[in-house]
C-alpha cells in the first residue's frame, strides 16, 4: 500500500487537521457523532480499578464536556464510586463504530461538590430522581419486586409537586484528561492514531503506530 496515499485519503486523520486542544477536537468529533444519528453517541465505557487493582468497566453516559474534562454522574456508593474514592484514576472510551472512530481519554477523576451536582439532578425526569433514591447501585438485592416496592414507597413520600431532593450518596465526577487519543479507521488496518499528551501547561501531539 502507498503510505503517502493513505495519509491523504478521504477519511484519514492527519496532524494538521487537529485542534490545538484535545477537548476542542473532542467537541468536533462529538458533534459529528450526534449528527450521524447513531444511538447513544454520549455512551462511554468507563474503566476504573478496584482497591486491590482489579480492572472494572461499565458504560455510562457523558453529561457535559469542556476544557476541564468529561462529566458524568452516579451513585457514590456504587462499585465505580468506591473505586474512584480509593484510586481516582480512570479511562473512558467512546466506540463510535458507525464513523469508524474511537476516542480514548485517560486521566484523574475529581468528585464534584453537592452544589455543582444539584442542577443536573434537578433537571432529570422525576422518575429518574426517585430511581436514584430507590437503587443502592451495585449492591445485591433479593428480587426485582423489592426494587419496585422501594420505588413505590418513595413516590408516596414525595408526591407531585413536592421536589425530590438529591441523595447525599449521589453526585457528579469530572475526568480530567492527561492523555486523549483520536483513532480513525483506515484501510488494511493501517489506522490513524493521534494522541494528545499533557506536557507542562500544554499538549503535544504524537502519532502512534496502529
Describe what this molecule looks like in 3D.
The chain has one domain (3-124, 168-208): Electron Transport, Fmn-binding Protein, Chain A (Pnp Oxidase, Chain A), CATH 2.30.110.10. It is of the alpha+beta class and 210 residues long. It contains six helices and nine strands. Strands 1, 2, 3, 4, 5, 6, 7, 8 and 9 form a nine-stranded antiparallel sheet that branches. Helix 5 crosses helix 6 (144-157).
List keywords for this structure.
nine-stranded antiparallel beta sheet, disordered N terminus, 210 residues, 6 helices, 9 strands, Pnp Oxidase, Chain A, single chain, alpha+beta
Helix-strand blueprint:
Blueprint: H1 3-8, H2 22-35, E1 43-49, E2 55-61, E3 64-66, E4 69-75, H3 79-86, E5 89-96, E6 101-111, H4 114-123, H5 126-134, H6 144-157, E7 170-184, E8 192-199, E9 202-208
Antiparallel strand pairs: 1-2, 1-5, 3-4, 4-7, 5-6, 6-7, 7-8, 8-9
Summarize the structure.
This protein has six helices and nine strands; from the N terminus they run H-H-E-E-E-E-H-E-E-H-H-H-E-E-E. With 210 residues, the protein is an alpha+beta fold.
Taking all residues together, what is the mean pLDDT?
A: 94
CATH architecture: Roll
Strand content: 25-35%
Distance between the termini: 15 Å
Question: Can you tell me the residue ranges where pLDDT is under 50 for at least 5 consecutive residues?
Answer: 1-10
What general form does the structure show?
elongated
Q: How is the main sheet built?
A: 9 strands, antiparallel
CATH domain topology: Pnp Oxidase, Chain A
The domain tally reads: 1
What's the total count of β strands?
9
Structural class: alpha+beta
CATH top level is Mainly Beta
Series of secondary-structure elements, N-terminal to C-terminal? HHEEEEHEEHHHEEE
Portion in helices: 25-40%
Tally the helices.
6
Radius of gyration: 20 Å
CATH homologous superfamily heading: Electron Transport, Fmn-binding Protein, Chain A
Amino acid at each position: 500500500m502507498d503510505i503517502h496515499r493513505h495519509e491523504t485519503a478521504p477519511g484519514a486523520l492527519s496532524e494538521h487537521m487537529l485542534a490545538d486542544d484535545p477537548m476542542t477536537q473532542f467537541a468536533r468529533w462529538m458533534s459529528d457523532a450526534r449528527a450521524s444519528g447513531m444511538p447513544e453517541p454520549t455512551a462511554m465505557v468507563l474503566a476504573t480499578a478496584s482497591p486491590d487493582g482489579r480492572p472494572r468497566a461499565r458504560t455510562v453516559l457523558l453529561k457535559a464536556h469542556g476544557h476541564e474534562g468529561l462529566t458524568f454522574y452516579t451513585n457514590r456508593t456504587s462499585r465505580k464510586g468506591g473505586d474512584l474514592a480509593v484510586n481516582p484514576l480512570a479511562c473512558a472510551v467512546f466506540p463510535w463504530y458507525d464513523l469508524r472512530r474511537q476516542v480514548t481519554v485517560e486521566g484523574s477523576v475529581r468528585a464534584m461538590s453537592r452544589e455543582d451536582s444539584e442542577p443536573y439532578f434537578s433537571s432529570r425526569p422525576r422518575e429518574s430522581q426517585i430511581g436514584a433514591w430507590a437503587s443502592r447501585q451495585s449492591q445485591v438485592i433479593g428480587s426485582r419486586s423489592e426494587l419496585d416496592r422501594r420505588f413505590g414507597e418513595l413516590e408516596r413520600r414525595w408526591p407531585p409537586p413536592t421536589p425530590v431532593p438529591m441523595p447525599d450518596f449521589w453526585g457528579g465526577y469530572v475526568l480530567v484528561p492527561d492523555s486523549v487519543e483520536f483513532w480513525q479507521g483506515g484501510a488494511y488496518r493501517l489506522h490513524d492514531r493521534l494522541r494528545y499528551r499533557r506536557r507542562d501547561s500544554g499538549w503535544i501531539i504524537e502519532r502512534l503506530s496502529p
